[in-house]
User: What shape does this take?
Amino acid sequence: MDVRSQVSMVFHLDKCIGCHTCSVACKNVWTDRKGTGYMWWNNVETKPGTGYPTQWENQDKYQGGWEKNDDGELKIKSTGKAEVVPNIFHNPHMPSMDDYYEPWTYDYQHLFNAPEGADQPTALPISKITGEVIDVKSGPNWDDDLGGSQIYAENDPNLEGLTEQQRMQLSSVERLVLFYLPRICNHCLNPCCVASCPSGALYKRGEDGIVLIDQKRCRAWRSCVAACPYKKTYFNWFWGKSEKCILCFPRLETGQAPACFHSCVGRIRYLGVLLYDAERIEEIAKLPDDELVEGMRSIILDPFDPKVIAEAERNDIPEGVIDAAQRSPVYQFVMKWKIALPPHIEYRTLPMLFYVPPMSPVLASREEDTIHHATDNLFHEIDNARVPMKYLANLLGAGHEGVVRYALAKQMAVRWHRRAETVGDVDREMVDRMLFEADCSVEEAEAIYKLTSLCTFDDRFVIPPMYREQAIEMIKDPHEYRRDAGFGFVGGPRRGL
Amino acid sequence: MDPHFLDQFLFVALPYICLSTLLLMTIYRYWRQSFSYSSLSSQFLENESHFWAVVPFHYGILAITVGHLIAFLIPRSLLAWNSHPLRLYILEIAALVFGLMTLIGLVGIVLRRATMLKIRKVTTRTDWILIGMLLVQTVSGIAMAMFYPWGSSWFASNLSPYLWSIFTLSPDISYVVAMPHLVKFHVILAFLTIGFFPFTRLVHVLVIPNPYLWRKPQVVRWYRARRDRKETLS
Assistant: This one.
């Protein structure tokens, strides 16, 4: 056993209202510079929809992630080791700016300087790259809220494998549905971007698992952009460097939640430590598709298990981190309740961001205010939800419905349980049967309810101590470091001419 | 001006100035501004003509560079290889083909950078000077291959000794001054390009990712010292 700790995340999709506050917070902090205009380290997309960059989940087009070759070995789909050398001059699977959008601003001066005329002057869109007037054809969140649209929703790669009837259901007007999918870097356990970098510029931080790009070592070979199946590494076209979400590590190191987490209006985001067994990463990443979700759970270790604690201590994981792991909300969602699932685990990068699948709105055709359980199936509503189970399974269950149904059934049971508690118009016996069928005790239902609905800041973000002083100690006396910080001639970065 | 003095300047002083610039400035730049070591790829901004410009250029110039290095490093073996006319023809034709590939690629690069507005915006004056130098150098190389054939042999027999004399710090320019003007021009421009090298994006050649093929796929960096560091990641 090789115990390591990872700062992991849960996004509760049932709570996301699609306000994009997270995206804006991130943009203002990190990507408001030349060359980063088109980047959204955090973005929120409408599902069903094509996403950002367009159709990022279509790996026939982008060739992202890992694949198992005939010998059962893992191979980077885009440019494996053997393909890197001949393809280094032109990466064959590199997305271009057209797959994202051309960033623009507006010629606001024109509003003031326009000569007098019969019409109100308008501010024309100006490309942030060329400075020329452009005809804006697409942009960030261009398909926001366009569930049911034929250009966007219908071209969602997750619709693969859905029956004609299920597809119809998604676009019929009475049953139109959409939900939001906020996305940041998943800080994977088996990151494809890291494995693909010819320069070795990308790395995973040993202590907290954050995946970063060493800007001084990045040489713009662009392999990471092509390799990441989630398209969460971006190419800075001006500086000639790849950039990605850094999970706001400077904030984490000072005990603050990342900007997107901190600003989340719907309070959908949870952050905490998971302990995992690094020895088993390769074994798990090679499992067949239908065993991946369970395999992923099996690699995550119980922070209360004395054996795990002993191994963690032997691996120099500080007590404070183990304590944070025991209080981790992510552990609750992913391991105890099993209602948070990894996105597209079939890409085999073992993402450490988990999503609680969203509940669809109650069907419009349901009768009045009474709850009919005409059938014996108490979970009729999730089996006939507006979002087909198969769709969510393609997104969160590697195509297998079981784990998604489990998560939805439990959420549904918790809902009815709380309704019985607060409104009292539901038969308690039926609720108990629902809880039983959903593999959920009353205590668990209460805990899920609390962490979902009544969670405070400190419940949602259990940030482990990062012990930067120990890292500094390796190089310099921390007191001296503190005294010297901010002095000297560092000089800004210079572009490579 | 005394032609002898001019030759001394062009074929002794200039090479030493350029070579020492290359040595000192690349180290200095790596030390102070390693961030600036980047290939500054423009593939992201334009993904189609990129292939037709960049790929022939790189393969062409790589083969040509390797050819020059062989003639410089192992001239005797090269001459032995060339002693058989058929092998000489094959070598000459291959060199010409790679030279033309380089030229085609360079023309593509010029067209791409000049006509596409997005790419023009990420092209600096340094880039234009460098592309100009490489273009002239390539054209002069192809012209030599056509007008002064069997370059692989006369390079090995006559220019290699000159280059060796430079590198062994006992410059002897008698070989090179006897060369036709086109050849002299090619040699001078080569040294100028070498001297200009550390000030351009060409430095990305020095950071080619050779360790990649041998390293483990995953890279983990530790910030705190560990007692028992296990390299378990695949």
Summary: The longest strand of chain B covers residues 220-221. Residues 230-234 of chain B have pLDDT under 50 and may be disordered. The domain at 8-213 of chain B is CATH 1.20.950.20 (Fumarate Reductase Cytochrome B subunit).
